[in-house]
Specification:
The complex is a heterodimer of chains A (311) and B (171). By secondary structure, chain A is α+β, with helices and mostly antiparallel strands. Chain A contains three helices and 16 strands. In chain B, 45% of the residues are buried. The chains are: A alpha+beta (311), B mainly alpha (171).
């Protein structure tokens, strides 16, 4: 086996030499320091690579392309139909910024929550709402759509002078489709006139349906990552369905850590995050259970995440 | 966000001395060498922005493991595409394009190992960490490291023996 040891050492060394990036160590250190100074916490939303480095990874390229495209091209290219089918800006004037806190991302100012962006993420602010309470930023994941965040969580590199940004973000009028009443009396009733949604945001939770005995189901569930070390966070995801509507997903966890809570709905997913702080080793088994408005409980689903301690 | 002066000095030293090898180590562990530099830099940013609650005695090992998890997440985010490519027999040949024959075999054999064995192997053979240092870095017992290393060597020997035209015996 000594021969194998030598072979592995030599081969690994050659591979490392092949992979070794250019030795601009000062540039890398400066770039890392600049990210930390800007509030970046190493969150996985966007990749950034130190300037002058060979072997630039995909995420780095996407980040670079995003800044260039958003400033020079995307504003015009998106034209009249943006991602999500929301109002689109005729011209994008970008202001580099960072999130000072994690925030839900809305499709329009105060509208439907379509995702979340972690604290420290670098964004390009491209619009502001009339009341200055919301900022439109280029979606850091796709670099195509515009997401709306509370202005209070966005810190501009130049001190947050948003006045130069174009106005936008108004949510389109939403009309509520009338629901056929489920009543024993078949007598015809006047069809209600559709009316404008009185306020932004997602619709109310589904109302309980008489006689609904069909339990909701968690159709898919997963966690990422499934192995976390000190102060790292694992997020458990679930996709749930029901004949009327899922009103919530309860989650509990046992093992190296224990507790219970509610999963948060983000877009079509239900999510729950657990951070390995204080760091501990062992496995944690999450149990998720969906429920509907009638009180039906779905079958429990379990997902295991391994915790480990370093250092 | 202020960065402590002592940490800045550590960062400069780390980047100048350990960074290239750590990037290579993450690439070997994950089999995704293109994302390794991004992942290592993310791990370093995370270390500086939100240091772990306890002192890290083996920063290279810590960054290697954290970054390999980060790179794995990046990889998983594109997993559907990768699986689709695998199904039709397409493999990203550009990854190994720069390597010579034996090194291609070694990298491929390594990819066939479970992740923990890959981590232990790379920390031991590439970063030259002793079994005790690997155990300290991973927060596991030396016995666990020895077991993982033993299994990794046995599997690698079996996978590499045909290419090398000789028989490896476990020992």
């Amino acid at each position: 086996m000594a021969e194998l040891d030598e072979l592995l050492r030599d081969s690994f060394a050659r591979i490392a030499e092949t992979d070794a990036p250019a030795r601009d160590s000062a540039g890398v250190a400066d770039a890392i320091r600049a990210r930390v100074a800007s509030g970046d916490t190493g969150a996985p939303a966007m990749g950034r690579v130190a300037p002058g480095w060979g072997g630039v990874g995909t995420a780095g390229w996407i980040g670079a392309i995003g800044v260039v495209a958003a400033v020079g091209v995307l504003g015009a290219a998106l034209g009249a139909s943006g991602a999500f089918g929301r109002p689109v800006l005729e011209q994008a004037v970008g202001t580099d910024a960072a999130l000072v806190a994690s925030a839900d991302a809305h499709a329009c100012a105060g509208g439907e929550v379509v995702g979340s962006i972690p604290a420290g993420t670098r964004v390009l602010a491209i619009a502001r709402s009339d009341d200055a309470g919301w900022l439109g930023v280029r979606d850091p994941a796709t670099l195509l759509g515009t997401l709306w965040l509370p202005a209070s969580v966005v810190a501009g590199d130049a001190g947050g002078a948003w006045d130069a940004l174009p106005l936008g973000g108004a949510c389109p009028d939403v009309y509520v489709e009338p629901v056929d009443p489920v009543e024993p009396d078949p007598a015809p009733t006047d069809e209600p006139e559709p009316g404008p949604n009185p306020g932004p945001g997602p619709g109310p939770n589904p109302s309980p349906q008489p006689g609904d005995t069909t339990p909701p189901a968690i159709d898919q569930w997963w966690a990422t990552p499934t192995l976390i070390y000190d102060d790292q966070t694992a997020t458990v995801f679930a996709l749930a369905s029901d004949n009327v509507g899922v009103t919530g997903v309860a989650i509990s966890w046992t093992g190296a850590k224990s507790g219970s809570g509610e999963m948060t709905k983000v877009g079509s997913e239900w999510r729950f995050s657990l951070t390995n702080t204080p760091a501990t080793s062992g496995s944690v088994t999450f149990t998720m259970r969906a429920r509907d408005a009638a009180g039906n409980l779905g079958a429990p689903r379990t997902q295991t995440v391994t915790l480990s301690v370093l250092g | 966000m202020a960065v402590a002066q002592s940490t800045q000095v550590d960062l400069d030293v780390f980047v100048a001395t350990e960074y290239p090898k750590v990037v290579a180590a993450v690439g070997l562990i994950t089999g995704n060498r293109q994302d390794a530099a991004d992942a290592v830099q993310d791990a370093l940013v995370g270390y500086l922005a939100k240091p772990p609650g306890r002192p890290i005695s083996n920063l290279a090992a810590w960054i290697t493991v954290v970054a390999s998890n980060r790179a794995r997440d990046l990889y998983r985010s594109r997993a559907a595409e990768a699986r689709a490519l695998e199904k039709v027999g397409v493999r990203d040949e550009t990854v190994d394009a720069e390597l010579a024959g034996l090194d291609v075999d070694v990298a491929a054999a390594l990819r066939g190992l479970p992740e923990q064995q890959r981590q232990v192997c790379v920390l031991h053979y590439l970063l030259d960490h002793s079994v005790e240092q690997v155990a300290e870095g991973l927060g596991v017992s030396t016995g666990t490291v020895k077991t993982q290393l033993h299994r990794a060597r046995k599997a690698l020997a079996a996978r590499l023996a045909p290419e090398r035209g000789e028989e490896e015996h476990d020992g």
